[in-house]
Amino acid sequence: MVLNIRMSQDMLAGVIFMAIGAAAYWFGSDLDTGNAADMGAGYVPHALAGIIFGMGAFMSLRSIWLSSPAVGSVNLRPIVFVLASCAAFALLLMKSDSCSPARYRFSSRCLECGVPALST
Amino acid sequence: MDLLISNLVLGFSGAATLENIGYAFVGCLLGTLVGVLPGIGVVPTVAMLLPLTFGIDPLSGLIMLAGIYYGAQYGGSTAAILVRMPGEAGSIVTALDGYEMARKGRGGAALAIAALASFFAGTVATLLIAAFGSSLASVAMQFHSADYFSLMVLGLTMSIVLAQGSIFKAIAVMLAGFLFGLIGLDLNSGAQRYTFGVPDLYEGVSFLAISIGLFGLVEVVRNLEFPEARGENPKMRIRDLYPNKQEFRDSAPAAARGTLIGSVLGILPGGGAVLASFASYTLEKKLSSKPETFGNGAPAGVAAPEAANNAGAQTSFIPLLTLGLPSNPIMALLMGAMMIHGIAPGTAVISERPDLFWGLIASMWIGNLLLVVLNLPLVGLWVRLLTISYRMLFPAIMMFCLIGVYSEGGSAFQIFLLAGFTLLGYLLMRCGCEPAPMILGFILGPMMEENLRRALTVSGGDYGVFIDRPISATLLGAAALLLLVMALPGLRNSRAKAFEE
Known about the structure:
The structure holds two protein chains of two kinds.
Chain A: E1 2-8, H1 9-27, E2 34-35, E3 38-39, H2 43-65, E4 70-75, H3 76-97
Antiparallel strand pairs in A: 1-4, 2-3
Chain B: H1 2-15, H2 18-35, H3 42-49, H4 58-83, H5 92-140, H6 145-162, H7 167-181, E1 184-185, E2 192-193, H8 207-225, H9 245-267, H10 273-287, H11 300-315, H12 317-323, H13 329-340, H14 347-352, H15 354-386, H16 390-409, H17 412-430, H18 436-459, H19 465-468, H20 470-487, H21 489-500
Antiparallel strand pairs in B: 1-2
Helix pairs in contact in B: 1-15, 2-3, 2-4, 2-15, 3-4, 3-8, 3-13, 4-5, 4-13, 4-15, 5-9, 5-11, 5-12, 5-15, 6-7, 6-18, 6-20, 7-18, 8-16, 8-17, 9-10, 9-11, 10-11, 13-18, 16-17
């Protein structure tokens, strides 16, 4: 599971920051900006979204002119397995969350599905 | 002077109870245990072990935290000396001569020198914090919100300048952290920001999820993907633990000078510990009558950077405790932990909770003492740990991280958040961005917004207030100057060279 990415590091970084900036602007567009003297909840987030997007755009544009090292070969196994084990942990927890405390009354395991109790 | 003594007595009476010494002991032990593992630096160690300190009372928690921090640092030096695997930038220099000493069979002596030099530096720096801490706090009383904002800008700028890699990327990473820090309920307007209706986000992104994701799990992935980064196994014997007379004579003055350099540079916001270890090593090499021994196992080359590193690490607590300004990622982690304990570091701590402030200072010294007592006899055990197989180690670390994150909020959502930040941290790592500035932005961001808001409300929306106030103007000027200097090509090259060495 090795992926060879020829995209340059700066280009990828720029794209990530543009995505963060755009998401921050899109999902925060309902926040009230206000003005400098009376800031709304959206004043700083909007400013940050703009700056981050701008920096990301600059980074990826610059990477077209100036060469930077490529991302190179990415071994997917470690990252995929680490993320998958997080997900497995969370999903197993959610399953045990659905067991009501009453079912643990006489046992350290849920009487219906056998999931161990997390706290008593 | 009398006041200082009575304050220290207050601190020791709180910190030196049997229970708290026990916590300090456990903290040191665990910190060393994880810190010594090759490839795992101080920041991931502290991030992973943070959750352990929650749920006990604040002072004990802080004491344990301090123990973890010193233990992790000492563990890092051990790995640097024995297998030339510096876990963090501060011990890179130690690895140069320490590893050479170890190869010559003086590994035990190098470890003892490192421990004793660190202990000496820690003692001096703790006294310095006690002496200057409270007076600096009274200076900070005159700060207005505009000044605080500028101070934080300066602090962030300095930490970026000292970070590895591209400054431009570091700024972007920091701002992204700032943005993540704003998620949750806006206290001024009561509006929900970026919570998507998820109750777990109402109080903001979990600090543990972001720090353990960015530092703990990304580190695991990095080690799995680049196994060649592991050092060779230590083959030398550690028998002679005590430095001989000549080694002692070489290293004692070096440790003293290193302490001085470290203490001064550590106070600077921006975290001078790394700088201090480089500077003191260079100084020793210049002062030495036998400069050619440096790099070939000179004891002074171990003592000076270790003393400087430790003194710097210690005095970098000063801006945190007095101004509430974390000067490096570790301080940001500690600050986050303090806030979870319900303590907001800053001027208020000294005046409102003197027992906590002085107790923490006393515990720093206790932590340093315990390290010497604990580590020298246990060196054999730590060496054994260095050879532990990764296939045993990583599942254990994963489990530990997952339980830690889950234990704070008790909801599965935190785990998904953790996975998200791990992915983000991994992507950033792959495109040459250091994740450290993100945690600084995350911690300082909300405070910066608060101060910016207050300052501009008072000035009626006039941004000139940051230039009109002399304190604020000076701080901003310094930050601008710093960025300007860093943008100059000549300095950029020498900085790159310094990191290469």
